[in-house]
Structures are given as C-alpha cells and as structure tokens.
Write a structure and sequence with these properties.
Largest sheet: 8 strands, parallel
Number of helices: 10
Shape: globular
Radius of gyration: 19 Å
Order of helices and strands: HEHEHEHEHHEHEHEHEH
Distance between the termini: 18 Å
Strand order of the largest sheet: 7-6-5-4-3-2-1-8
Length: 251
C-alpha cells in the first residue's frame, strides 16, 4: 500500500487517505478457493490490515470464518465477511444451498452470494431458476447485508442473460453478481445489457478479471457500487497516486 509518510502536505495526505478508504469500501476483496490454506488466508488478512482500510466485504471460505473473524477483532475498521455458496457452477441441490446458507446465517457471516445452476440456465429451464431463487430470497434475503445470485454471463447469450434475469426479477432478487470469477471475467457489455433491459431493477455486482483502476471507475460510472476484484489493494494504490497528483501531493 502507498506510503503516506512520503507526502509532505499532511492535509492532502489525510484527504486522499479518506478518499481511498471510501474507494476501497465499495470493493470486495479476499481469498477464496478450495486449495487455499490457513497460511494463505492469514497473509492476505495481514496485507489488508496494513492498509488500515476496509473493503465492502472480505471474501473467504466458510471453514476460515472463525480464524478470519478473530484476526479482525482488534482491527481499526469493521470488516464484513463474505462467503460463496455452491461455487462456481451452482450444481448443489437447492436443499444443500439452503442448508449452507442457514449455516452461514448461524455463524454470523454478513454477506453471501449463491451460484445458480448452470445446467438449468443452459437448458433453458428458467422456471427452475425462478423457483430456486425465490426459495432462497424468501428465506434469507433479510438475514444478510447482501444476498446476490450469481450468473455465468460470459458463457451466456444475450437471450439467456435476459431470460435468466426475468426469472430472478419474478423471484424478487435484488442483487445479481455477473460472473463468479473462476476465470470468467465480466464485461462492460454484460452489465450494460442488464441495466438497459432492467433499468433501476438490480444491484449489479461485476466480478472476474477486473484488474485496473480504469475498469473500476468505468463500472462505477455505470452505477455499480459492489465490485469484486482480487486486485482491490493494487487498484486502490493506483487511485491514491491519481488523487495525489490531482491535488499536488506528488509530482
């Protein structure tokens, strides 16, 4: 993270630090994946704590929630914890997804996303998509800071995206995560399509292959205020340098 002690003008340094905190607070950041170890997660938590900032949520696997929560107990900022359910292909049975969500609710996880069944989407069983989404929304929508349903938009045609979003709309879904990551990168076109076809309807969470400050700024211009990126800290660094140059804090 940028070393603010190198900025001579303390007023500018403080201003940019606060703006950077606000910037990071609209990004998801963390470490997920079944191959991740406790040591991997500890390193990324310490990296975040060194910034004295907090993302919108810290992404982790359910088995690491107690450890991560303990590591953030004495931290200067409140950090929400986020877990994904049936990641990435959504192939768990609905009953399994519901059971996992109940576990996450009981252990106090703040924020979740649930992957929709890719097979149901690609076989055009939109009624099944709607039924599952409605079960999840009816039971859990009020229990988490955000509950997002995840679609693999990069693998879908425009028609499949629209039909799936119609099913989610009918189910009362509020938040849609566009791509699970897992090497599926979101595109501006996918987000624009959903916003055009469902204006002011969904809270859209872009995810996957968001690596640059210009990417994040463009998604924010499109109205996305929940952006998943593993490069959140590096992007925040770039934002800090940009703002310091604008304010004359550095050359």
């Amino acid at each position: 993270m940028f070393d603010f002690s190198t900025v001579e003008n303390q007023e500018i340094a403080d201003k940019v630090f606060q703006e950077a905190k606000d910037f990071l607070s609209l990004c998801h950041f963390g470490l997920q994946g079944i191959a991740r170890t406790e040591e991997d997660v500890k390193q990324i938590v310490e990296k975040l704590k060194a910034t004295k900032m907090a993302p919108l949520a810290f992404d982790t696997e359910m088995q690491f929630v107690p450890m991560v929560r303990e590591m953030f107990e004495d931290y200067c900022c409140k950090v929400r914890l986020h877990c994904a359910v049936s990641y990435p292909m959504g192939r768990c049975l609905t009953a399994t997804k519901m059971s996992t969500l109940d576990q996450l609710r009981r252990i106090g996880v703040d924020d979740v996303c649930v992957c929709l069944d890719w097979q149901a989407i690609f076989s055009r069983r939109y009624g099944a998509v709607e039924k599952e989404a409605k079960q999840i929304v009816d039971e859990f929508q009020q229990d988490f800071y955000r509950l997002a349903l995840v679609i693999p938009a990069t693998l879908m045609s425009d028609t499949q995206i629209i039909q799936t979003c119609k099913a989610l709309d009918s189910a009362g879904v509020v938040s849609v995560k566009v791509n699970p990551g897992a090497k599926l990168g979101v595109s501006f076109e996918e987000v624009a399509l959903i916003k055009r076809m469902f204006p002011n309807r969904f809270d859209i969470h872009p995810s996957g292959n968001i690596r640059t400050l210009s990417d994040v700024l463009r998604y924010r211009e499109m109205g996305c205020n929940n952006i998943h990126t593993a490069a959140a800290l590096e992007i925040t660094d770039a934002y800090i340098v940009k703002k310091l140059k604008e304010y004359g804090g550095i050359q």
